[in-house]
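Researcher: Let's do a round of design. I'm pasting the structure tokens now; please hold your answer until I've finished.
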């Protein structure tokens, strides 16, 4: 019912800005004529190359078409040769259009254009600015975060049709079911008192003002519940929506104030196959914005150790992270269909060794046979000199 009646539906407006600059090679232009772009991609653009209001857009779609002049150094010698043979003048511009970022879908609700020609106040070097506003309608769904007034926050685990929700003896279905384990450990009893008084207030059609540290006592709440003709404990027998049978124990029922928080699952949902790595540690970057990987922290390592999942753990800590040689070897093995090779040394270890060497400590690494392992190219040269193998 909560989802159906749009009780927690929110509209989010995202702003995308494109700046047209005057570059050293010439001015950038807003245009519909974009190189290497299919006509289908340009369907929603007007004659000037700006998206029309009301268009439905998804990630990767062009909002504003823009081309930037490119220098001759950008073109390859082969390309220059072909152009001279066929006598074609290569397009001396590159596509620098404003596109919808990864994971965003919505409707364009407004386009604002500001230019120096209209005496608008713009930053130096900027000739024109285009702002596109995209609205996204988000219904409540699994994974969205909600909270009451007492720090009783949590995520929606399941959305059920009205007929499957538990219901009272008079047929009223419940809107939200909370886990009772959210009360004892956190000791926020206020949420239970709010549930009870809220039901009485709703039935009697009254409003109550409950100040902090001046809350009504349990006795006062009971008086109001009796006045409303409700059970003094606010506990009633509830029927299972699927079977129609009563649940084993009476359940606290009432009316509370509930909010949807700005931690929505659509903004958080993220997955990565391959992506960028940090330059120093060679580990995958973190976070959705960087298209990063999932962090495997200390506690996750303990969990895998408890299961005895040694191979999984080694894979996660080496070839799926910062073992550079292992990464390329495993790729090769997968492509060729061979069994994968042993993991190498994580780059983080090399970084630590270099850090210690920076503290003037002479650190060397040896294998089980007493042979020195080269961690850097410089190490290799030193070992070769020592062994006389050149």
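Researcher: That's everything. Go ahead.
Model: Designed sequence:
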């Amino acid at each position: 019912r909560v989802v159906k009646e749009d009780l927690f539906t929110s509209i989010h407006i995202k702003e995308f800005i494109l700046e047209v600059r005057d570059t050293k090679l010439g001015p950038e232009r807003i245009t519909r004529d974009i190189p290497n772009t299919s006509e289908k991609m340009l369907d929603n653009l007007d004659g000037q190359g700006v998206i029309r209001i009301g268009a439905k857009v998804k990630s990767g779609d062009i909002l504003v078409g823009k081309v930037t002049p490119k220098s001759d150094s950008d073109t390859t010698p082969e390309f220059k040769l072909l152009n001279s043979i066929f006598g074609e003048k290569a397009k001396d511009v590159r596509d620098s259009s404003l596109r919808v970022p990864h994971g965003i879908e919505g409707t364009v609700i407004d386009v604002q254009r500001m230019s120096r020609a209209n005496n608008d106040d713009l930053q130096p070097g900027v000739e024109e600015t285009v702002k596109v506003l995209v609205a996204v309608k988000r219904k409540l769904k699994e994974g969205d975060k909600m909270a009451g007034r007492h720090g009783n926050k949590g995520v929606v685990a399941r959305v059920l049709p009205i007929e499957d929700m538990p219901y009272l003896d008079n047929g009223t279905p419940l809107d939200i079911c909370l886990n009772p384990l959210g009360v004892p450990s956190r000791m926020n009893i206020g949420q239970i008192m709010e549930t009870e008084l809220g039901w009485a207030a709703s039935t009697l059609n009254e409003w109550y003002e409950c100040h902090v540290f001046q809350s009504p006592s349990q006795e006062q709440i009971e008086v109001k519940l009796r006045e409303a003709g409700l059970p003094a404990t606010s506990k009633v027998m509830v029927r299972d929506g699927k079977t129609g049978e009563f649940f084993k124990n009476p359940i606290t029922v009432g009316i509370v104030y509930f909010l949807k928080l700005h931690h929505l699952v659509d903004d958080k949902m993220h997955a990565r196959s391959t992506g960028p790595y940090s330059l120093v540690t060679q580990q995958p970057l973190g976070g959705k914005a960087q298209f990063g990987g999932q962090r495997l922290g200390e506690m996750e390592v303990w969990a895998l150790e408890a299961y005895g999942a040694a191979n999984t753990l080694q894979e996660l800590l080496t070839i799926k992270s910062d073992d550079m040689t292992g990464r390329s070897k495993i790729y090769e093995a997968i492509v060729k269909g061979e069994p994968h090779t042993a993991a190498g040394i994580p780059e983080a270890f090399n970084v630590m060794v270099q850090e210690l060497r920076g503290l003037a400590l002479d650190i060397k690494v040896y294998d089980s046979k007493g042979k020195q392992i080269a961690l850097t190219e410089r190490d290799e040269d030193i070992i070769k000199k020592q062994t006389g193998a050149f």
